[in-house]
Amino acid sequence: MKSRLIQYIFALLVVFIWVALPLSAQDTASQPEETSSAGAAIPIWQTADDIRSALLNAQRELFAARRSDDPAGNLAAASAYVAEATTHYITTMQPDIQRYAAEQDQQIEAIFSSALGAAQAGDDAVLALARGRIWTGMLHGAYLTTLGALEANDTDTVAAWLSFREYRQATRVTVVLSPAAGALADVQSGVLTLEEAAPIIENDLRDAYYFRLRQAATELQTALETDYFTRAAEWLGQLEGYYAIFADDYAAQMGITSPADALAQIEDAVSVQDTSAALQALAIFREALTNYQPVALTEAQIAERGQLLYIFTDLVYVEYKDAVRNGEITVPIEYQEASTFLAQARSTFDELRPTIAAHHPEEAARLDAILAQLQSLLDSIGEIAAVQELVAEGKDLISSSLTLDMNNNTAATFTVVNALLDDVEASVADERYDDAENTRLQAYALFDFGPEQRLMAFSPDLAVNIDALFWHGDGDASGLARIIAAQGSTEEFRVVRQELSASLDEAQIILGATSEPLTIILNSAIIVFREGLEAVVIIAALSAGMVRDNKKYRRPLFAGAVIAFIVTGLTWVVADAFLALFQNYGERLEAVVSLVALGVLLVITNWFFHKVYWTDHLAGFHQRKGQLMRGEAGKYLGLMILGFTSIYREGFETVLFLQALVLDAGVLIVLQGVLLGLVGVAVVGFITFKMQTHLPYMKMMVVTGVLIGAVLIMLVGNTVRVMQVVAWLPVHPIEGVNFPYWWGQWFGVYPTWEGILAQIGAAIFVIGSYYLAEYQAAKERREKALRRQAQAAPQANKTAGSH
Known about the structure:
Number of domains: 5
Number of helices: 31
Mean pLDDT: 78
Oligomer: single chain
Low-confidence stretches: 1-40, 170-176, 612-630
Strand content: under 5%
Structural class: mainly alpha
Protein name: FTR1 family protein
Family: Belongs to the oxidase-dependent Fe transporter (OFeT) (TC 9.A.10.1) family.
Transmembrane segments: 520-545, 557-579, 591-609, 633-649, 669-689, 701-720, 756-773
Keywords: Membrane, Transmembrane, Transmembrane helix
Subcellular location: Membrane
């Protein structure tokens, strides 16, 4: 009882102080140390956060008052919190807002008074409405103060108030960029004048707040549909505040004020908890904003958002087709991703609709209908084929109406990769590690078959580092795959995620820069030489032992290699024409080629070791001439396939890397680098095969055995890795073991149980089958010796008897 009395007295004291401090410039002018927020001890953003926290505490007290038998104490505490928030505003924020935006200051005063009345009356809905209005009212005041200070050449005030703002990124749709902060930094360094920076800062703020306006409308709809009217009131307050920033500009552009009328109707409906009327008015509000463009988008912004819209729309089908079967959700995480990508597509389309509608009104209307139909299909777990059809139509409309080049969508891809990594982090935080791993693979696949192909050409070290961070790390440092497999903590994950995000940002900067033709030529040559060198080593290893009587087996091997070279050229042509198709299926194609190469290599090397190296140079064939003739064609075909798949695997990868460079510099410049690289490969190949002819036969056998073993280990490891990338195999890191990343780059050795066991299994298969063949050959020799002895014994007895 005593503590309750003290609480009452404290609350009344705070309210008294608040009443004694009128919201006016005359009373605050006597406090010079607080008249300029630019020189205030407390930053503007901190004051705003304190106000928001105090008002939230007031709201909680009203919720508690509902459940209390004696609510007076809660109401007094709520009033005290409102008074505290008001005091923060008076002492720190009001002076500058009153100076540059007096009318807005008066509106904020009125809202604080309304909030106090609601707290005293215990009206939680009215307080929630006031909370939303106060927050966006302060943002509006900060916006006007910033613009006023820019006009007055007051750099310090601009810097102080730019600390209190919101950014576009309320969801995962965009990466947070701050042109305003960049422009201010340029002013402070003398690169720009305040006059030049003013439109940059204004457009950045308007772009961010219009984005937030649309988000507030979405949140309001969600609250109304769930009959959460207190929450709806708060979002309505924010929506009103955001719209107030644009009201004058909207009226000037559109010549009407229907959004304001719709907001008034929503407020009336929410006050009586009429969900239907509120939703109808909200639909009118949204429709009125359909063709309003608060900030003219640049061509680059239109292209980037268009590529995002295209990718998000495409990913709706990509995720949905794996999420449902027979009208039921079978993979919830995939369904969630499909829904999220659809929401992002809608948000991005809302930004682009005025631009599209200005030149293609029918296409804009159809895209709007397609997104609505997709939402209906996802809500009802509709047919996959219907989703696929709508997505395909939508992508065609997006490409045609915005004239997009979807072969050059690196920036948009980075945005989606970062968005997926946000989901991975959320899954780790919720301890949904299977979901985290699935989403990690999606993010890596987008990076691997998109930006990484170009990055390998411009900054291979950075590409390798990003690859390691996505997977198992490098040396003692962990990667995302290892942390997820070990079910690591959110803090541990965030450390690696931050490093990965920094590397991705660096990669985006590198890929966004224009490259000189000479750089492209050299990079093309390096790619061809690197991949060609691997091909030379493989063919040299396989052909080294084919000497003397076995030299004929080189022909099918080399024939397969030549065919692979020709098919690689055809792949270049196909990839150039159908790059989008390769982007969708490239990893799977690489996995298939790797599997075929691995299978043929195991079979052929097993046969070759037995028949060429250790079984007396095909001596057994002379005793079974008919079998030899029947089996020779199969062996020739097998060697041809081996030569083809071994080389085409490298050629396929080379095509992917070079296509990335073609997007930057064109075919002719890249072809110069290709020719230069081929000359280097030819020189190395000539030297390698010349050396083979001068090595003693037994040394060649040893060298060849070692080389083929290394090729086998590398191919097995890389095949397992690419199958893990496309989720055909699971990923189980070896706990406590982390190899240097170059082991994987050069030898295909990665610290996963799947890869290591597969490599051990391949070695056991070849070595074990050799020893088995040796055992069988020895057994056959013993049996032959026994048969000869048995045949010789009667003859010896007969000879002895004749004597």
